[in-house]
Structure formats: structure tokens, C-alpha cells
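Database export, one record per block. Field names are fixed; values are copied verbatim from the stored entry.
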Amino acid sequence: MTLPPNVNQQVQTLLSKHGQTGLKIAKATLNDPNIPTPIREILRYFIEETWPNTHHPALIALCCQAVNGKAELTHNISAAIVLLTGAADIHDDIIDKSKTKGPKQTAYGKYNKDQVLLAGDALLFKGMLLLHEACMDFPAKKQQALFDCVEQSFFKIGHAISSERCFRLKPVDIARYRKVIESKGAVAEACAEIGAIIGDANPQQADALRHFGKTLGVLMTMKNEFTDLQDPKELVNRLKNEIMPLPLLYALEDASAKKQIMALMQGRMTKQKAQMVAEVAMKTEQVKKLKKEMCRMVVAEEKLLEPIKINVDAFKLLLQSSLEGL
């Protein structure tokens, strides 16, 4: 599949344009003097340096606009989602002992573990309060639909994280891990549904947007699995504290690759050995098939969006960005 030029740059522009207001509101809530200064410092670092989350607010706003809704009605609930997903991310880093993500330290890697845990709790409480306040702006029926949507998505995420913990105690079945990855797409699915609810989408539009959100969430989670495989630091941590990235699990189905990978994994796993593991895995037919499957998912989702009378150009761009760098 041929991607449009500068797809990442286009996506960043799109996310900044439509998601910046939600992020700004979320940041403002953290200036509360009731939050102890050390916790505020952690939260400021987290949300500005490692979690500048414009993607969830942008998705909500775009889905609302797509059905002729007013994007400004989404900003407060978008900010609540930024805070709630941030809390989940902080707690997940503590569970996984993730000290870095890409070139930057996580809050867990930079600050005292106990204080980071409390910072995550602060985001959770602030997020729930803001969600309640934001939903009060809507009629009762819409309020309940929004609460239900958020509740269901975060329970799915919690179930996925719980399942991951169980996988670490026994051999990982790829089919079961794929279900966990599908559950991790729940927040993107919820964001699309929130936009549809606020924008008063008709049932056909709401179903299409919900399906798009779920597919996008799954694709971006799978892309992150590839990113972790090809980042030596992250791969070392995943091999030590988490589950192997999905592409590596597929690569181990290749007898020749498995022999090479298992040999490299003997003894202490260094960054150099992790890089070699990734190189072997990426060359396997199983991993190439996984990449092709992701391309097919993008094409299929684009076709599903076409009959719906909404502007889908932005959605197609977001889907295509999930394939960038694979």
C-alpha cells in the first residue's frame, strides 16, 4: 500500500488543530493548589514531556464534526479523557517498570515510585470530576450514554492489562494476545462514540464511527508493538518485565528464526543483541504477513467509511498513519 507523502507531518498538524484545546483544558486543571507541589511537578513533566495527548481529543472532535456536530461541545469531555488515559498510562508504566519511552524518561523512570503512583491517582480523581462536570452540560439521556461509553472502555482496558499480567506467568498464545490488543483499542472506539453521541449521529453513522475507532485503536496498538520491537531499550524491558512484542511472537513460529532468536536471548540481553533479534524477526514471512494484514485492515475500513455521508478524509489519513514506519 502506497502512503501519501509526509503522512506523519499531516497527522501531527491534524491532531494539533483539533486536539490542542482539550489538552490545554486538561493541563489547566493540574494547577489546582490542593495538589501537593511535588505531585504537580510530576504531572507537569508527564503531561508536557511524555503525554501531550492531542490524539484522543482530536478524534472526539473530528467524529463530532463529521456528523455536523459542534466541536466546541467536545472540549471539556476531551480534557477528562486526557486525564483518565494519562492515569492509566502512569499506572501501566509502574506495573511494567517502564523507565523510558523512546528518547525520554517516563515519570516512573524520573521520579520516586510512590509519588508517581499518587500522581496517577490525582489524574484519575481529576479526570472523573471533570468527566462528571462535562457531562452535566448535556440532557440526561446523552449524559448516561457518555458515562456508559467511558465506563465500558476503561473496564476493557483494565481487563486487557490484567490479562497481560497473567500471560507473563505462562507461554503466550498469539490468538489470546490478539484479543488483548483488540481490547486496548477500546479507548479510541470510545472517543469515536463520544464524538458521535455529542454530534447527534444517526444509528448508521454512529455504528460506522464506532467501528472506525475500534479499528484505528487496534492498528495503532499493533504499530506500537512494532515500535517496541525495533527500539532496543524498550525490547529489553519487554523481554524482562512484560510480554514479547506481537511481531516477535509471530517470528518465533518460523523454525529457523526461532533458533537464531533463542540463541541471541541466552544470557544477558544487551541493546546490541536486542537489535539483532529485531532484525531477524522483521525478515520472517510471518511478520511480513502481519504487516500485510494491517494494510488489508486499513483498506477494508476505508471502504466501510465510503457509503456513510460524512467527511472521511481525516479518518483515512489517521488509518494510513498506522502503517508509517513499518
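Remark 1: Residues 7-321 form a domain with the Farnesyl Diphosphate Synthase fold (CATH 1.10.600.10).
Remark 2: The longest helix spans residues 140-167.
End of record.
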